[in-house]
Structures are given as structure tokens and as C-alpha cells.
Amino acid sequence: MAGKTYPKPKSPQEYLVQGCDRPWEVEIAPFRVSPNVYYVGNNWVGGYLIRTDEGLMLIDTTMHAQIYLLLESIRQLGFDPRDIKMILVTHGHYDHHGGVRPIAEYTGAKVFFPKEDEYMLTEQPELQFTLGYACGEFEIDEYYADNKPITLGHVTVHTVHTPGHTAGTTSMFIEDRDENGKSFVVGLHGGVGLGSVTDAYFEEYGQPKSLQDDYLASLHKLRGRKVDIAVALHPSHLGMFEKIGEDRLDFTPFHDPSVWEAFIDHRIKLFEDMKAAS
Asked: How many CA atoms lie within 13 A of 127 on its CB side?
């Protein structure tokens, strides 16, 4: 079914429904974004596979119904999904962690999760926004800490608590290098969507409005970081698909140190425009 053209959903909720009811309609072939980092998500929400010399790491899992496509993407790249040693979840929304349980059970991978979002799994599961789709409970093996990088083989991931989109949203900066030893920093913001920082959202779900201040403060905190390759959980935020060349394993179109700051500035402006209109 890959290669067919389907109507584009009109909203994130429609994408979620389409991805869970008819996941093949949002399938996209995997591609490389840095020497050892690959996009293995669908055409709306991403998962990132990191190859190391001691196994694989996976950042986010997309949804439960997408798992067979995510695993197939990993196999298309020439890797064995059973080599996944760590699953790093950026935040507590379903479209990012819906596949954790089956993938963790299949691979035996260690699961990392933000402590501040654990209540979304236990006390307020409605904040995951599963829309009633399958979402198995999973064990958390370790919480993030800004002063405790996560290392597997030759790759290190620095995590930064960047609350706002959710209380526990965690951004990730991957230290990567090519076969010649050239270093690259891959930057991934853990969640920039504005839907969960609106006044209406706080009123409906009883969340603290201080998350708006946190959202803006988090963006400013990350703005000055050195990032060689900027990627996004929702690729449309960075126009990532437009950069893919004929060779999907050529990561060089994504290497642009100017993108990260421009991306952060754009999100700051969107937030400030939203506040001015409220």
C-alpha cells in the first residue's frame, strides 16, 4: 500500500485517527538525518533510531497501531529491531509513547521516561489523548536528569527538561560522529505544540497555567545551544520531508547549523502571537 496517495488529514486529531485506524495511509519510508540517526516514524509523528556500536536506541515509538510499520522501517535500514537496548520517551502524549509496551516486551529494552509526566500514565490518563486506542501500561526503568547523559556505545544523548508542552517534556541533544571522526550535534525539542498551552486547555483539564511561562522559558533556554542538525518530532514543524533527496541515506541536506535558532525563534513568535490574541 506504500506509494498510494490518500487525502491529507486536516488536524492532529485526524492524523491520530488515521494513524490508528489505517496506519498504512501515513506510512513513509525511513531516511537518515545524521551519520547514525534515522527517522523511522510516519508522515505526521516521528520516531528516531540511533545506531551505536553496542546496539540501538529508539526515541519515541509513535502509536500502537503503527508498530509493524516502525519495525519494518528499522528492518529496511538493515537493522534488527531486537537490537534496541533503550527506548527514550520525550513526553507523555500517546502519539509518542503508544508503542512502548510491545516494543519493550519484544526487545527487552530499558525504558526512560520523564518523571514529571508519570502522573499522565497513572493519575490523569486522559491527558495522554489516546482517543480510546490501545495503549498498554509499561514499566519505567529510569527517569531523566539533566546532569546525567545517556550513553550507549559511542553515542551520548544529553537530555534537558523543557516543560511547557507537558510538565515533563524532555529535549534531547545527540552527540554523533561520522566514520572519519567528524562530530555532529543533533537537536530535538521534546514538544513544541501549542495546543496544550492554551487557556482553554488549562481550563478544561485543570492544568497549571504556569506551564505557559515554562513553555516560553524552555524555548529561551534552548535557543543558544549549538546544534548542527535540527530534527522534529512532528517533521512538518521543520519542513523535513522537503529536504529528503533521491538518496534517503544522505543526511547532508539536514546539516545546517542555522536551522535550530530559526526554529526556536519561530516557535517563540507563534507562542507570543497566541498570547496576544487571547
From this structure: 23
The CATH code of the domain that includes 217 is 3.60.15.10
Q: Is residue 8 part of a domain?
A: no
Residue holding cell 547549523?
257
Q: Is residue 19 part of a domain?
A: yes
Domain holding 181, by residue range, is 15-277
- Model confidence over 190-220: pLDDT tens digits? 999 999 999 999 999 999 999 999 999 999 9
User: Is residue 248 within 8 Å of residue 40, measured between CB atoms?
Assistant: no
Distance CA 67, CA 37 (A): 19
Residue 52 CB contacts under 8 Å (≥ 6 apart), including other chains: 36, 152, 153, 154, 155
Residue 10 within any structural domain of the chain:
no
Give the span between the Cα atoms of 77 and 40, in whole angstroms. 9
The answer to whether residue 168 is domain-embedded is yes
| pTM attached to this predicted model | 0.95
Grid cell in block for residue 110: 530499558
Cα separation, 247 vs 114, in Å, equals: 35
